[in-house]
Write a structure and sequence with these properties.
Layout: H1 4-18, H2 21-27, H3 41-61, H4 69-78, H5 80-95, H6 97-109
Length: 110
Amino acid sequence: MFDSRERIEAILSILEDELDFHNFVNSGVIMEHFPLHKRKVSDIQEVFTSRKWGLMKGFVVGGFEAKMGPLNFVKSYLGEKYAFEFAFLLHYQGWLVFPMVFGIILTGYQ
């Protein structure tokens, strides 16, 4: 129903309605407050970098729907906005492979 980011935002809004976090920070009771994550960022980077080439190939050739695992992982951890940005950048990188190959051939020819 809700992903983890939406759940955390709902819980945070309920807590902020009940507790005055700014007063606690200003008085020195707490230093800062932030939600804890279940996974480490290094786990996300490992999964994303290990599977991004297949996803880039899927964006260029087709059939990327079956390889959306890394983007779904990013979406559940960081949100849709950043997952969309990652998808755009992977799509862009995938299509830049063709001019890169042409440039390498042209440089070798010169």
